[in-house]
Design brief:
By secondary structure, this protein is α+β, with helices and mostly antiparallel strands. It has 2 helices and 8 strands, in the order H-E-H-E-E-E-E-E-E-E.
């Protein structure tokens, strides 16, 4: 903490982040099955990043930018998921995020655009091309900062 102001990793002041979360909740007030947050373990995120780095090396593109694009999405009717504790959760029409691999595409004008792609080099490593198994809050909310509720 610097000068009494907490920052998120990209430099957003915590009070601004809290307001952003509250604005989201307000925007969706009264919505059934509201998803306030989605949690992924550091092990799962590390696995995704490790596979993405391996993909870049195996493609011979060590100098290119690779990353992850997060899409906002909604589960369909009747969707269920078993969380990390082994508990079955109903995700019926709940919002979620999808993580999709991206890599640096061709230059268009002055910009290099990141394009979605699906693994073609590491399928034998059982990579997940689109990731979607985070735990949704409400329900799996243990440890959520009170200011973000």
């Amino acid at each position: 903490m610097k000068n009494g102001i907490e920052k998120t990793s990209d430099g957003v002041d915590k009070p601004i982040a809290v307001e952003m979360v509250k604005r989201y909740a307000s925007k969706h007030a009264g919505q059934q099955n509201l998803t306030k947050s989605i949690w992924f373990s550091v092990e799962r995120l590390d696995e995704i990043i490790t596979l993405l780095k391996a993909e870049r090396i195996m493609a011979g593109e060590a100098g290119k930018r690779y990353g992850i694009r997060f899409y906002m999405a909604t589960h369909g009717p009747g969707a269920t998921h078993i969380n990390n504790s082994g508990t079955k959760r109903e995700y019926d029409n709940r919002d979620t995020v999808l993580m999709v691999s991206t890599k640096q595409g061709d230059k268009v004008g002055e910009e290099n655009f990141n394009v979605d792609y699906f693994s073609k080099y590491i399928s034998d490593l059982k990579a997940t091309p689109i990731e979607n198994h985070g735990e949704l809050c409400p329900e799996d909310c243990g440890g959520t900062d009170d200011e973000f509720k």
